[in-house]
Amino acid sequence: MNKGETVKGVILACVKELVQTRFGADKWKEIHEKSEFKGSSSFLAGANVDDSKFFNLLKVCSEVLEVSFDQLLDAFAAHWVLEFAPKMYKTFYTKASSAKEFIKKLDYIHEIVTKTIPDSTPPRYDLEWPSPLKAVITYKSNRGLVGLAGKLLKQVGVYYKTKLNVTDDGKDKITVIFPS
Ligand code: HEM
Fold it and tell me: How far is CA 107 from CA 40, 88, 137, 138, in A?
């Protein structure tokens, strides 16, 4: 977690939609009340939200919903990749016809969606291909969410109905093996 960095409100909007649709409006109300966002409009897609408030929201979610942090990230990853982003950022999906094509654009996607936003600090990705069916992805962000990145990549496989083998080193490297 970094002081001074902010995350886009669109991520929070996805957390809100996930809780409301999977756990119900009452649960969201309770979480909102207990979070540091009470009465604020940070859930607007373009809002800048302090990283610390974002992490606090995730903590409150896992407490109120009685799920582990890991389970919460799994649910968030599925909701982001399978439900929320396909509505909000449809063209990235229609332009990629396979999980591999989508993953090749991962860095471009993060660059482009935050391009017009001053001071944004999106995660960036370097891709290497030791073989045609193996990608080694370097996750570049100070947020330390490499585990979440791996979970999101797995869901890209689910979206494209491709079984991906995804592992991460707990620091900054994610290995994705594609089926032959
Ligand atoms: C169309 C699909 C996607 C879009 C439009 C998208 C867009 C975004 C946006 C706007 C943010 C917030 C950045 C900021 O506030 O500075 C973000 C954060 C993030 N994205 Fe994506 N993303 C997509 C898919 C993925 C996938 C497949 C991964 C898997 C590697 C991923 C990994 C992350 C992570 C880990 C973060 C948290 C911020 C961080 O770690 O620094 N995203 N994404």
Answer: 31, 18, 10, 10
